[in-house]
């Protein structure tokens, strides 16, 4: 039963690869029939669990309620999407975001549920580091706007360079990953090599300091919650 449940959960999650917009598109009828089959299996597993569980215990378990709600939402969305396709109305399958609920909330997924709970408990404690990082990113973006916005610089494509504040925030956010380095700094560097100091300072503060600090806080808090959850067992 556990193997079958995991198989159909994996099959249900894999449908995202074949549904529009898809990597390997399949006809809507095929993907919808597979999804209905998966939902029927999930409903059958839930019904089986209800037969061997006291009624008041079953209905007080939020995991069972989450699975029932996810099944109803998926069927409703599938029906609406199918009707809209008949009338050539373009829409999206918004219920796909609830599919991981099946992976987390079935009784067989105890270990996954523990990991998810640890992640959930860790999030509030990393909020302060994340807010500090965002504050640093916004301040550097404002400095970039003041430094380069009035220089009438252009990118290699001939577009205005660092003129829009929101675009600057996005470009510097990408620079934290070094994905657009050194392209993002070349127009400023060509204007004056001294401007490279701004980008060097940004990378040191945000990529090397804040990202290391963020990773350390996430790791330590996740390990702490996981250790508490397993009753003090060493999680290293």
Task: Please describe what this structure looks like.
The protein is mainly α and 236 residues long. The protein has two domains: 108 residues; 114 residues, Helix Hairpins. Helix content is 70%, strand content 0%. It has nine helices and no strands. The longest helix has 39 residues. The radius of gyration is 25 Å and the shape is flat. The two termini are 32 Å apart. The relative contact order is 0.08. The mean pLDDT is 87. This is TPC2 protein. It is found in: Membrane. InterPro entries: Ion_trans_dom. It holds the Pfam family Ion_trans.
> Unreliable stretches, pLDDT < 50, 5 or more residues?
none
Label the overall shape: flat
Largest sheet: none
Helix/sheet category: mainly alpha
CATH class label of the largest domain: Mainly Alpha
Number of domains: 2
SSE sequence, one letter per element: HHHHHHHHH
- The averaged pLDDT comes out at 87
Instruction: Please name the CATH topology of the largest domain.
Output: Helix Hairpins
**Count of beta strands:** 0
| Straight-line distance between termini | 32 Å
> Which CATH architecture of the largest domain is right?
Orthogonal Bundle
Instruction: Give Rg in angstroms.
Output: 25 Å
